[in-house]
Amino acid sequence: MKPNILLIVVDGLRADRCSGSNRTAITPNIDSLIKNGTYFSQAISSSDGTYTCIGSLLSSCYPTKSGITTFHNHKKSTVNLEEIIKQDYKCYITAPNVSFFQTMSSKFIEKDLYDKPYVYLKGGTGNSILKVIEKLTEPWFYYLHIMDLHRSVEFALPNEFKDKKFGVTDYDKMVSYIDEWLGKILKNINLENTLVVFTSDHGDFIPIPSINHEINFIPNLVDKSRKIKKIIPNFLEPLGLKGYLVIRYFSTKIRTKKFKKELTETEMRTLSIRGHKSMNDLFDEIFRIPLLLVGPGIEKEKEISKLVRQIDIFPTILELIKIDHHVQTDGKSLQILLNGQQFTENPAFIENMSVDENKKGQSIGIRTSKFKYYRNRKNSKKRVVLYDIEKDPNELKNIAIEEPKIVKKMEKLLEEFLKDESNIKPKLRDDDKTEIIKDELKKMGYI
Question: What digits encode the pLDDT tens for the residues 225-270?
Fold first, then answer.
């Protein structure tokens, strides 16, 4: 019998909140999964934006090869899913009702897409997931995208999880809450015949508790905007949104100047806005993701510290369920790692997402288990950064000037990835959804 596949993506979940010494969340269900499966402690995402990351996960290709960006080529995310469908898998999805997931799930038999403002797990999405599980017909593939950690406006943290025993920060408390729902979900799954893949699209910055918000989140402004929105006519909403964005822009500049005087450089970094057009750093906070495999044939209580990549996930799934396919990918199966065989690490390509349909992310780079190198996308001599990850895991000291030979070596690796970009065909839009996607990004705070 073919194993079922449950792919759980917790949007914005950092790897260091699933294992390691930085955890303050209470996560008995994640802990149980790790105990009953194989955990990859050094998995690297391709970007800091959801569409680009999930596009990389599903296509097994970097954007430099697939052309999948926030705005373009979303249809290419279906290539591996089509292989699964050919093998008589019934595909289901629970995810945000946005353009990317609409396209990605076009051939699924059950689509549970929830609207913005997102109905979080407690608000109904959790129960909707349980209802979908009741409908699953074997063999099935179920893609589950949990948004409760996404800081698009603010955490919808349930009152019962606001106690400090569930975590130091609201982020950690929300991880505790999500974990409780994971227990409810997994309780309804036959784990003996299901391959569970637990991961994230990207990580996130966790603001220091004394501020608890990104630099551009102004609670008073959000509260006033909500009140105004309730009383103004619908036709004035676009004008109101523009006004809100202008006020937020100038307020953010004032807040930045103020906080720089009061906070350390490391504390200021926690207030950064992942995915925003101003972001040009590629810190591990936003690129280290959890990757956990549980199910038939997966060794229990095993942790693998080798560097693996988001693009390796689907080749691994396909090999585990014994599907042969010949789609050209950047990723490779991790089956040999799971079997304890010799494994050669491949460097991970990383980049910022773009919120402009005509531009690419500001920074690009390479991550190995030893070093991280990144620089301005257009100019290889601009904003050059090199970290020795082994000696400096918190990425505090840029050694690019001190180590020109390593920079040269890493740049050569990066250029190999960039060769693929010249082969990308002209922009492929599913429809002309540019304005729709822009509106989605505005609502999520990226623009």
Answer: 766 766 777 766 677 767 777 787 787 888 888 888 889 888 888 8
Give me the DSSP letters along 324-358: ------S----HHHHTT------PEEEE---SSTT
Using omega within 30 degrees of 0 as the cis cutoff, is the peptide bond preceding 139 cis?
A: yes
- For the segment 294-319, what is each residue's pLDDT rounded down to a tens digit? 999 899 999 999 999 999 999 999 99
Torsion from C-alpha of 379, 394, 22, 204, nearest 10 degrees: -10
Between the CA of residue 148 and those of 173, 224, 232, 282, what are the distances in Å? 11, 23, 29, 23
Rounded Cα distance between 5 and 317, Å, is: 8
CA distance 61 to 312: 9
Give the torsion sign (CA, 405, 406, 411, 416): positive
The residues spanned by each domain of the chain are 4-206+282-348, 219-269
Residue type, 47: S
Q: Which CATH number fits domain 4-206+282-348: 2.60.40.10, 3.40.720.10, 3.40.50.300, 2.60.40.1120?
A: 3.40.720.10
Q: Give the closest residue to 350 by CA, choosing from 333, 358, 362, 359.
A: 362
